[in-house]
């Protein structure tokens, strides 16, 4: 029996989405292809990994055990990819940059023309949305975030600062100061 990463990758997509259609959409494939990979993996393992029901695919007990191991394999493969990409010295290719809507609009967008002049061989794909992309699963290559990631094998650098203010009517600020530690900090004045 030879395990293939492609089978595990398709398995994880179905385990996460609960659907062949959603897994196929995420993998930019077809539901039939995803189904073939699932069937191949179940055949190789000699185990049923999913209960196939009307609302979707749910993991069996065996499937849940395999999912945990498959995620370890996924992390190892993605770590190898990150290591290889980090050593490539060519400044070419596609880079996916994720940022919140406001950061993308007010900080990144004004500098896009200069970036293109400085790095003409890089195709920048800007993902502007409020929810966090998953860097481990390569949903983006770089993420601008307001806080340091709590977990994961990432290279973290401070990219800059963005001043902002918190404004409220004095009566509202005083009324809520007891509930909100931010307002109690000395650098916020309620005068």
Task: Give the topology.
Layout: H1 5-17, H2 20-27, H3 31-45, E1 50-53, E2 56-59, H4 61-87, E3 93-99, H5 101-108, H6 112-118, E4 122-128, E5 142-143, H7 170-177, H8 181-184
Parallel strand pairs: 3-4, 3-5
Antiparallel strand pairs: 1-2
Helix pairs in contact: 1-2, 1-3, 1-4, 2-3
Strand order of the largest sheet: 4-3-5
Helix amount: 40-55%
Biggest beta-sheet profile: 3 strands, parallel
Proportion of beta-strand residues: 5-15%
Mean pLDDT: 83
Instruction: Assign an overall shape.
Output: extended
| CATH class category of the largest domain | Mainly Alpha
Q: Kindly name the structural category.
A: alpha/beta
Number of strand elements: 5
CATH fold label of the largest domain = Arc Repressor Mutant, subunit A
**Tally of individual domains:** 3
C-alpha-based Rg, rounded: 23 Å
Structural features, described:
It is a single chain. The chain is an alpha/beta fold and 191 residues long. It is built from 8 helices and 5 strands. The protein has 3 domains: 5-86, Arc Repressor Mutant, subunit A (Orthogonal Bundle); 90-143, Periplasmic binding protein-like II (D-Maltodextrin-Binding Protein, domain 2, 3-Layer(aba) Sandwich); 164-191, no CATH class. 47% of the residues lie in helices and 13% in strands. It has a 3-stranded parallel β-sheet with strand order 4-3-5. The chain has a two-stranded antiparallel ribbon with strand order 1-2. The chain is extended and about 65 Å long. 12% of the residues are buried. Residues 183-191 have low confidence and may be disordered.
């Amino acid at each position: 029996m030879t395990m293939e990463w492609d089978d595990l990758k398709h398995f994880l997509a179905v385990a996460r989405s609960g659907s062949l259609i959603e897994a196929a959409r995420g993998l930019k494939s077809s539901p039939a292809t995803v189904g073939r990979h699932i069937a191949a993996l179940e055949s190789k393992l000699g185990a049923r990994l999913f209960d196939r029901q009307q609302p979707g695919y749910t993991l069996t007990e065996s499937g849940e055990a395999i999912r945990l191991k498959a995620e370890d394999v996924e992390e190892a493969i993605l770590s190898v990819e990150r290591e290889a990409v980090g050593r490539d010295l060519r400044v070419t290719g596609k880079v996916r940059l994720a940022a919140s809507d406001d950061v993308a609009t007010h900080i990144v967008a004004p500098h896009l023309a200069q970036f293109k002049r400085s790095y003409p061989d890089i195709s920048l794909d800007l993902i502007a949305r409020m929810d966090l992309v998953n860097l481990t699963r390569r949903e983006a290559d770089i993420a601008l975030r307001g806080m340091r990631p709590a977990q994961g094998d990432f290279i973290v650098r401070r990219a800059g600062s963005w001043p902002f203010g918190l404004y409220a009517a004095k009566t509202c600020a005083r009324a809520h100061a007891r509930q909100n530690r931010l307002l109690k900090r000395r650098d916020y004045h309620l005068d």
